[in-house]
Amino acid sequence: MLQKYFFISFLLMTGSLFSQTKGFTSFEENGLFGFKDKKGKVIIKPQYEQAMEFTKSSVAFVVSKNKWICIDSKNKPLLESFIYDNGPDYIVETLARYVENGKMGFHNERCQKVIEAKFDFVYPFENGYAIVCNGCESKKEEEHSRIVGGKYGIINKKGKIVIPIEYEAILNIDAKRRSAEMKQDGKILNVKLK
C-alpha cells in the first residue's frame, strides 16, 4: 500500500513540475542552445549562445547577441535583462531589473514590465523601496563596475517616486520610520518618504 501511495505521489509531483515548466529542457547542438519538450521534440531550435531552463512562470533566460533576454515558450523575446553576476538579474522582493533603450526598470517573474525603464540606473528593492538615479553612469574598476555621478531618489514598488531624484547620495532608508538619510551640498538630511 505504501509503495502504491509513493508511486501515485511521485506521478502527481512530476506531472505538476512538467505542467509548471511545460516540460521543456535546454539542449546544445553545434555550440548553440535550444529547447525540447518532454518527448524529445525540438520546440525551439538551437539558436542561443547560452540558455537557462524554463521557470515555473513559463519563461526562460537565454543569451542572444551577447545579451541576456527573457523569452516565452513560443520563443517570443519579452525583455532584455540587466546583467548581474554574469547572468540575468536576480528577482528580489518579486522584481528584477531590465534594460530598454539605455534606461532601466523592473519586471516580475513572468518577465512582465512592472516599472517603466526610465532611469539611468536602479538598485534592487529592499524593504519595499529602490534607489534610482539619473545622470549617473557606470565606471569600470577592474572586474566590477561602480555607479558615479548623477542625482538620486527613491521609488516604491508601484514605481512612484517617494523621494525626488535630486540628491547627491542616499545613505540609508528606514522603511519602518518611512524616512531616508540623504546627502546634499555636503550636508546630511533626513527626508520623509512620500
What does this structure look like?
The chain is mostly beta strands and 194 residues long. Helices cover 10% and strands 55% of the residues. The strands form 6 sheets. Strands 4-5-6-7-10-11-12 form a 7-stranded antiparallel beta sheet, with no helix packed on it. The termini are far apart. The relative contact order is 0.08.
Features:
194 residues, seven-stranded antiparallel β-sheet, mainly beta
Overall radius of gyration: 21 Å
Biggest β-sheet: strands ordered side by side in the sheet: 4-5-6-7-10-11-12
For the termini, the CA-CA separation is 61 Å
* Biggest sheet descriptor: 7 strands, antiparallel
Q: How would the global form be characterised?
A: elongated
Task: Detail the poorly predicted runs.
Answer: 1-20
Summarize the model shown:
The chain is mostly beta strands and 194 residues long.
Question: What secondary-structure arrangement, pairings included, does this model have?
Answer:
Layout: H1 2-21, E1 25-29, E2 32-36, E3 42-48, E4 50-51, E5 59-64, E6 67-72, E7 77-81, E8 83-84, E9 87-88, E10 96-100, E11 103-107, E12 113-119, E13 121-122, E14 129-134, E15 137-141, E16 144-148, E17 151-156, E18 161-167, E19 169-174, E20 179-184, E21 187-192
Antiparallel strand pairs: 1-2, 2-3, 4-5, 5-6, 6-7, 7-10, 8-9, 10-11, 11-12, 13-14, 14-17, 15-16, 17-18, 19-20, 20-21
